[in-house]
């Protein structure tokens, strides 16, 4: 044997599993096809949001949460319906992972991370609010805890543990090692084989060479696959696209680099692993093209507060629950039903100043760099954050104008043919503005805005005071063309609660484990049909820890 365990994929789930294994004294080979600059995978680019339940941060903000409320929200959002009570069902293990994860988010998660040095921004965000019934989709209360240091800050303790274990000889990092197959002896996975790629100095996230300079074959007592999802492979995304979400957009932008291609998912399935829920996925509807791209088709998600008016490509306002930050997949379905691939935000300067944030560590230098002075300036200033202003100035999807006719003219210039009718758009905005006269309204979006401002965190940093969009004092007017942004795979390799990959007959595949997105973040689909946000990084943490500890105990 070349090691006790081989871990394939050096993203967050792989780092967590490796840290757990090394902590138990196991020798680990950590392989990744990308150069060392890519250590940490997609977590490095993330905003660093984590789903926690009944945390001190919530309580300080006046939020009352409980494990029962969180599980109600999770199950109402997941809508598990694929033979949940049948061990052969696609949702059998996913449902068990969901219960275990919510309990983890309520109990050990924060204390474990805090003990590793992780800290959080004190204002808890309220993402994916749902907008339906109490037992339906969405978070009933704010649960989005932003790591102080964003994605890099969350990665840091696990990178440190792995580096320290490498210095002790327990971990060997092998970059530019692309796994092409699993080795199986007498029905047991006992290694991997593949190609050694030429050295690369490609910057993190950029394309690296695929030139092969050698081959390798490695053996171990167990293999843990933590290779991520399919979001960078648009062909595979379209092939898996479910009819319930309409027709897949012809044009999409990418929230992940091209190397997030799903190769290991196919390799593990070909070897005998069971892939379930492959038609479940999570793509954002508020994507804008990055004016300063790092990877091909690079898009950034706008994390919008609840006030921007949202219109389809022809300028028709979306109904509830298709408001910013409320129900992502309902809005995605509404966009595909419109017959066009894009939609529009229409807002004011006052709204963009208070409500726009951009997802990603590189778009939030104050939080990422732990710069308290810069962060306080963001909260107090009367302009949008610098990265947002940069997009407003340079982004191809932003239109800024003093009057609505000028705004509509600019919007129509961004499409192949003029789709927005000035009179129709103006009528909808005027109708909305008339509702501002009173603190009560029949407009459900304005009702939601008033409700959001009752939460201290939203009133402080996230939700602008209600105002008339067409009042020049609140201008200039801003329109943002929004694109579908590929991001997360919600299905994957089915695993039991130990992270053991199951075969088609639902028995464990000896020697093979999986964690992170390739496993649907646990069980082949812990999120079910939809996500509550803050659960992707947390899913990597939990499933990586579960698999790492289970393998260590089993060897």
Automatic annotation (TrEMBL):
<dbReference type="InterPro" id="IPR014614">
    <property type="entry name" value="KsdD_DH"/>
</dbReference>
<keyword id="KW-0560">Oxidoreductase</keyword>
<dbReference type="InterPro" id="IPR027477">
    <property type="entry name" value="Succ_DH/fumarate_Rdtase_cat_sf"/>
</dbReference>
<dbReference type="Pfam" id="PF00890">
    <property type="entry name" value="FAD_binding_2"/>
</dbReference>
<feature type="domain" description="FAD-dependent oxidoreductase 2 FAD-binding">
    <location>
        <begin position="4"/>
        <end position="537"/>
    </location>
</feature>
<keyword id="KW-0285">Flavoprotein</keyword>
<dbReference type="GO" id="GO:0033765">
    <property type="term" value="F:steroid dehydrogenase activity, acting on the CH-CH group of donors"/>
</dbReference>
<dbReference type="InterPro" id="IPR036188">
    <property type="entry name" value="FAD/NAD-bd_sf"/>
</dbReference>
<protein>
    <recommendedName>
        <fullName>FAD-dependent oxidoreductase 2 FAD-binding domain-containing protein</fullName>
    </recommendedName>
</protein>
<dbReference type="InterPro" id="IPR003953">
    <property type="entry name" value="FAD-dep_OxRdtase_2_FAD-bd"/>
</dbReference>
